[in-house]
Write a structure and sequence with these properties.
InterPro entries: Endoribo_LPSP/chorism_mut-like, RutC-like_sf. The protein is of the alpha+beta class and 154 residues long. Helices cover 30% and strands 28% of the residues.
Amino acid sequence: MSETPSSRLAALGIVLPTPATPVANYVSWTRSGSLIVISGQLPLKDGKLLATGKLGGEVSIETGVEAAKFCFINLAAQLQSAVGDLTKVTKVVRLGGFISCTPDFTAHAAVMNGASDLAVAVFGDIGRHARSTVGVPSLPLDAPVEVEGMFEIA
């Protein structure tokens, strides 16, 4: 039996949560042709932010990496909601990461690897993606990280 995204998630001990609902005038995801674009996801764990604050301040790089991982878990939950079955994903096209940080913080890429590494762990080679990672002065609810994604589906 070949590995699937769902079996890889299970092997990692990850159970996808109920997708978060939008809190403003936007949709959680939208489809255009074979692309699914998912709105930015916060690092929610059991419905609560994993951490608050800024990288380079009160949030460590290790906590930031974990936050980015939970952002990707929430992206995957939205994606499953959108397509019904993660085996329909043919490519993780792009991830965009926003890191709330102090002006002197420069380890954005290391933090975003939490999401990128999990994308590859869950989707294998099709999980390798293009990416942008930027530092920002603040994020909704004082979250330290937010990640958005674009996925190709069959």
